[in-house]
Amino acid sequence: MILYLTLPVLVMILYSFNAIPVQPVRQTAKFWGFTLEWWRDPLGVAGLPEALKNSLSIAPISAAIATVIGTLLGLALGRYRFRGLAAVSFIIFIAIAVPEIVLGSSLLSLYVEWPSLPILGPLAPAIGWTTILLSHISFSIAFVAITVRARVQGLDRSLEDAAQDLFANPVVAFFKVTLPLIAPAILAGFLLAFVLSLDDFVITNFTSGSTFTFPTYVFGASRIGIPPQVNVWGTILFSAGIIAAVASVLSGRRRGKA
User: Which of 27, 115, 127, 151 could cross-link 185 (Cys pair, CB 3.0–4.6 Å)?
Assistant: First the structure.
């Protein structure tokens, strides 16, 4: 199973070094030999730099906003009991369980009809970079909220009570006790939202208009042949994800020892 899951990634890494002799340079099934040419010029393909720029600018912004909103929502769901709690939890579940093609088409309908709304019409964004950002925030919030809620539900409330017994007001108790305890979940939620935004294709394809992100660029390039630089950037992004995951685990272990 591990080999089955990792084999496509290993093939991608291998073919980022494929010395393709044909012109125009497009990925082939044959491995012609080893070369570093594509690594020396990873942006040497028309359209790829702009697609990467869009993906790498949208992902951190959407992840940051979704993390803030999702953390507050996760705190409310994990700590308090209020009227409508079950309904909110169900909506979050629906946001995760609904097929992406349904969510993407729904968001596209919203953006198309937005200008005709009586009050919000003047605020309608142009379909492109902004609508991709709003879409990624919308589906990332639920994942962050569930991650933070699970952490909040496992907290020992006596620690916060002890802080308030020592004359810490609720704000101080939150920043000194609660926030450090849920920080690993917040970081995990941010990384999850970042990755979901970076590799999303279906929803982005519905709401991007003429704007390309890295996944939609790869899909378009696949119809005429994928350039080897795509494998290079896939390897770079995969390596960055591995480094971030290892750093998160090591950071959690250090906090546990402390």
Answer: 151
Residue 235 near residue 13 (C-beta atoms within 8 A) = yes
Q: Would you list the domain boundaries of the chain?
A: 57-214, 227-258
C-alpha distance from residue 250 to each of 177, 215, 257 (Å) = 21, 30, 11
Cα distance between residue 51 and residue 249, in whole Å = 31
Contacts (Cβ under 8 Å, ≥6 apart) of 221: 227, 230
Q: Is 21 helix (H, G, I), strand (E, B) or coil?
A: coil
Q: CA-CA distance, 65 to 251, in Å (whole number)?
A: 23
Structural contact between residues 188 and 248, judged by C-beta atoms closer than 8 angstroms? yes
Does residue 209 come out as left (phi exceeding 0), alpha (psi in the -120 to 50 range) or beta?
left
Distances 127 to 42, 132, 208 between C-alpha atoms, Å = 29, 8, 6
pLDDT in tens, 106-144: 999 999 999 888 888 888 888 899 999 999 999 999 999
Cα–Cα distance between 188 and 194 in angstroms, integer? 10
Of 216, 219, 197, 198, whose CA–CA distance to 206 is shortest?
216
Asked, as a colleague might, if the bond just before 24 is cis with ω within 30 of 0, I would say yes
- Model pTM score: 0.86
Tokens of 102: 């349904």
DSSP 105-135: HHHHHHHHHGGGSTTTGGGPPPTTHHHHHHH
In the chain, what percentage of residues exceed pLDDT 90?
43
Q: With bands split at pLDDT 50, 70 and 90, how would you rate the model's confidence at 39?
A: very high
Please, which residues bridge with residue 34 across strands? 18
